[in-house]
Amino acid sequence: MTPDQEAELRARQRSRSKVMALLLGAFCLLMFFITISKIKAGMGS
Question: Where are its TM segments located (predicted)?
Fold first, then answer.
């Protein structure tokens, strides 16, 4: 594998890692807000 190909591979891995981190963060926020809304709904009844 040439150095150019290796650099391209690393760049693709880095961008894929960033996307996965953003998706994981969005999922955590979604779970947090769902949990908060369920807790608030339970307190009202």
Answer: 19-39
What was the pLDDT predicted at 44?
A: 66
The model's confidence at residue 11, banded by pLDDT at 50, 70 and 90, is: very high
The DSSP line for the chain is: --HHHHHHHHHHHHHHHHHHHHHHHHHHHHHHHHHHHHHHHHHH-
* Residue recorded with tokens 């779970």: 31
d(CA 19, CA 7): 19
In tens, the pLDDT along 12-42 reads 999 999 999 999 999 999 999 999 999 999 8
| Domains of the chain, residue spans | 1-44
